[in-house]
Amino acid sequence: LDHLRRVCQPRLGADTMLSADEISAKEAFILSADNSEDAVKAKEQAIYAIGEWYALRGEGDQLGQLLTALRPFFATIPKARTAKIVRMLIDQVAKIPDSMALQMSLCRESIEWCRAEKRSFLRQRIQTRLAALLLESKQYSEALSLLSALLREVKRLDDKPQLVEINLVESQTHHALRNLPKAKASLTAARTAANAIYCPPLLQAQIDVMAGTLHAEEKDFKTAFSYFYESFENFDSVSSTRAVDCLKYMLLCKVMMNVPEEVSAIVNGKPGIRHSGPALEAMRAVASAHQQRSLHDFEAALQAHQAQFRNDPIISRHLDSLYDMLLQENICRIIEPYSVVETSHIATLMNLPLATIESKLSHMILDKKFKGILDAGAGCLIVYDDQAPDTTYNQALETIGNMGGVVDALYEKAQQLAVTKA
What pLDDT, on the 0 to 100 scale, is given for residue 368? Predict the structure, then answer.
């Protein structure tokens, strides 16, 4: 047993060098009938080592087979330890690129096993993980259906840590569907449950990110910045890679608040230097283009750092809004001195396709950004001067009202005189 325990100890930093014989020895020891306390601890260490080794080699199928083979072993150890091992193995599968389908398959198989073994605690947590995977794979209806049934069950148990996770995933799903009122309601429920328990930094950071995202959707970028800052500190305290994303969101908020000059101060500060890289350089380029009010520089920044922006739906959505705002400002600046101007001239000055300019002008007229019409036949834009509103009608109504008041007062005096004479 001592020899097998030495073999089964994970070798940090050297797992990729394990031989097939060592892996076979570990697997044989795990499946052995020895269930003494020392043997169980050694088996658990061996499981962690094998799981990490398979993940580093990208052998997701082997991890799935290992999870299935361990079920007899799970019957001999406490349920809490079983839950820890199962969730660890699923986390190892998540480290393998393009393993979404395999993760979902393992979750579904594990859920059925938990039902058969009546392991409700583990089943609820795997179902929450499955809902998050469904959200990531954009299967929103199935995710909401699963979360709704799970939420009713967990509420009866009053398992607040689990309620926090379920409500958070539900909020993210509603946000992905652009149902902001329900997303805010789910987030409020998650924060209420989190306030009643100790919330780990990683989970608290996820809650703050969601809160900042929803405030940004409502154009309250100042409040969103404070939430993103809180989430950045929590992610940074546990050395999570998501700290860089939160830093990007903080810079985005500064740009959307029309203070792009503050971006350089954050990037050159201690957090920016510690997390420097392509992501922060991309946001610096956007801030510089916005500060110069240059649509051309903005498009160049988007093109040069496309990988940093398009893979993040939050940044992508707000940058599209920022592009529209810059386009409107540039068009208004060009047409300001004209009463009639050719649309082709605007397109030439802005170096944009004519169809894009005409479409944007139509939207601006409908949104009442300025008064004018598009003359499609002549290919020009006719801009009307802002005229003071005609107050004649309102003044006439006011005069008639005053006259009515005078007549009523005279009538009352006449009635009083008639009473006095009588």
Answer: 82
Helix (H, G, I), strand (E, B) or coil at 276: coil
- pTM here is 0.77
Count of Cβ atoms closer than 10 Å to residue 366 Cβ: 8
The per-residue b/e assignment along 8-18, b for 16 or more CB within 10 angstroms, e otherwise, is bebeeeebeeb
- What the block records as the tokens of 372 is 């004018």
Is residue 235 within a helix (H) or strand (E), and if so which, with residue range?
A: helix 221-237
And the tokens for 295? 């649509």
Distance CA 370, CA 362 (A): 11
Spatial contact of 168 and 131, defined as CB atoms under 8 Å apart: no
Kindly tell me the sign of the dihedral angle through the C-alpha atoms of 89, 94, 95, 100.
Answer: positive
Q: Which range, of 25-39, 221-235, 323-337, averages the lowest pLDDT?
A: 25-39
Contact between residue 143 and residue 131 where contact means Cβ atoms under 8 Å apart: yes
**Rounded Cα distance, 234 and 218, in Å:** 24
The residue behind tokens 């001067």 is: 385
C-alpha distances out from residue 154 to 149, 157, 158, 188, 303, Å: 9, 5, 6, 17, 46
DSSP state of 294: -
Token reading at 276: 């420097």
- Torsion angle of C-alpha atoms 325, 326, 327, 331, degrees rounded to 10: 110
Helices (H), 33-179: 37-57, 60-69, 71-74, 79-94, 100-117, 120-136, 140-157, 160-176
Structure token pair of residue 375: 């003359």
pLDDT tens string 254-269: 988 888 888 888 888 8
* CA separation, residue 55 to residues 6, 48, 50, 88, 175 (Å): 22, 11, 9, 11, 32
pLDDT digits (tens, 9 = 90+) for 39-52: 888 888 888 888 88
As a whole number, mean pLDDT of residues 281-306 equals 86
**331 CB contacts (<8 Å, ≥6 apart)?**
346, 350, 357, 360, 361, 364
Average pLDDT across the chain, whole number: 85
Angle ∠(181,198,232) on CA atoms, nearest 5: 65
